[in-house]
Amino acid sequence: MPANNYYTRVHDFQPGARARSGEVDAELNAVELGFSYLPDVVTSLALGTPTFASEARGATVNDYVATMPDTRVANAQGDEVVFEASHTNTGAATLQVDANAARAIIRFDGSALSGGEIVSGLIYALRYDASGTRFQLMAMDPQLAADVTQVQGTSTDDPTSPGIFNANLPFRNANSDAVGSLGFGGGIDMALRNAVHGGSLIFSGENTAGTVITMATMDPDVGISFGVGLSGVGVTGGDKGADSLNFSSIYVSNVAVSQAGHIHSTDDLTSGILGTARGGTGAASFAVDRAVETDGSGLLSASTITATELSYLNNASSEIQAQINGKAATAHNHAAGDITSGILAVARGGTGTAAFTINRAIESDGAGALSASAVTATEMSYLDGVTSAIQTQFTNLDAAKEDVDADILRADTVGVMSAAKGFAIATLTDQATVTWDGDTEQNAQLTLGASRTLANMTNLRNGFGYTLIVVSGGYNITFSSGYRFPGNVHPTLSGTTILSFVAQGGVLHGTALLNSS
């Protein structure tokens, strides 16, 4: 048995002969090892997907990372990688296969990618070029069309007339089947004979005013393409007459083509109205906001049904008249017990809703209907025990005799207090990371026993001011990210330092008064 990359027999076992168990085990191990070289997924060989990898974006949009079905330990000449692109490249790109180093991806001509050659959602095949340590993109990329400027043929019908090209060029085979596209540069008169079956004729170039293209014995499947920038190009029929110019597609850019029997796409219609005989509506528009129907001639016309009336058919589940006939007469009565579904409307003495916002007082709105108030049930419970008008009681209070406490200071009022008010100086705990609560320690003092870290303030209130008096004792403070100082330079403490802060944007902005005594 010849040697191969999967399994080569070592022992020659003969029928009826005894064999040592060690030799049998060695032979079976070799067989098992051979199977290990095959793809893990049994069906991948039958499906042709042993090289179909999963691909993900790398560090940038131009980096592709492929994970093979079977781990590839090294890239070798001709190795194939197939993947569905997860993103579109914008420039020169690389491919990394498993844990191997990323390698450049090149186009068919050996040049680097420039952007748009690999499009998200499409499948691409690449092969490894070991001589250049790179991967070559096997597909015809979108940039190819931009790179091909002109394909020149060789005259075979008339050597003295370089503008006449015979169909027997390297663009067709003996059966006249299309194998490519034939391109001509502009600026000359040219004649085409026996055009390629199913192929494409491409005309490109500048300064082609007055060019005449004569076509003879044209096949109905020939497509003609004129490049952008052409003007004044005329197309005429050949010896077969106008009927020979029934092309399946003519693509014209900035070129006026006048020829019987040619075809346009809908994008070519830039003026006029397509008649009904050609599948058009015959009108630029219909009466606004109307249903459209066919008239007695089978043509489209505006109906008397308005768009609003037509919308009433939305959600209709069966014949409308049958549903109407199945309903009760207009004038009939119901008892309250007959209402087993739906919500009783306000106009019928109902609330108009199955439930209000929970735990709210109920009031009548501007239309006199019931609605949930902004007052919560808890707030409304504060009325319990009130014996007279609340505002009258407030008005009768002697404000001069009332002691202003911290809760009154929080009210949105403007006034003058009869005595000074302020916050007591709280003492912060000296520890490795010092904490500071803005709600209870608005003014605080800290005596350092060593250099410390000051944590970000908790319960910080934007627009509030805070003061911290630090008795440094020769030690310093490392400020956390929630503290800002002029020039983004944290102060070095000296003696007794007074730090004054104002909260803004969730951050304390401060200044330092050093050596204060």
Structural commentary:
The protein has 517 residues and is mainly β. Among the domains are: 43-145, no CATH class; 148-269; 425-513. The chain contains 8 helices and 28 strands. The chain has helices at residues 21-36, 43-47, 144-147, 307-311, 320-325, 377-381, 390-396, 406-409; strands at residues 52-57, 63-67, 80-84, 94-97, 103-106, 123-129, 134-137, 164-165, 181-185, 190-193, 200-204, 212-216, 223-226, 234-237, 249-251, 290-294, 300-306, 360-364, 370-376, 425-427, 433-434, 443-447, 452-454, 465-471, 477-479, 483-484, 496-504, 507-513. Residues 141-261 have low confidence and may be disordered.
Key features of this structure:
single chain, 517 residues, mainly beta, 8 helices, 28 strands
Number of helices: 8
Q: Calculate Rg over CA atoms.
A: 44 Å
Largest beta-sheet characterization: 7 strands, mixed, barrel
What proportion of the residues form beta strands (DSSP E)?
Answer: 25-35%
List low-pLDDT spans.
141-261
Shape: flat
Q: What is this structure, in a nutshell?
A:
This protein is mainly β. The protein has 8 helices and 28 strands.
Helix-strand blueprint:
Elements: H1 21-36, H2 43-47, E1 52-57, E2 63-67, E3 80-84, E4 94-97, E5 103-106, E6 123-129, E7 134-137, H3 144-147, E8 164-165, E9 181-185, E10 190-193, E11 200-204, E12 212-216, E13 223-226, E14 234-237, E15 249-251, E16 290-294, E17 300-306, H4 307-311, H5 320-325, E18 360-364, E19 370-376, H6 377-381, H7 390-396, H8 406-409, E20 425-427, E21 433-434, E22 443-447, E23 452-454, E24 465-471, E25 477-479, E26 483-484, E27 496-504, E28 507-513
Parallel strand pairs: 1-3, 2-4, 5-7, 8-10, 9-11, 10-12, 11-13, 12-14, 13-15, 20-22, 21-23, 22-24, 23-25, 26-28
Antiparallel strand pairs: 1-2, 3-6, 4-5, 6-7, 16-17, 18-19, 24-27, 27-28
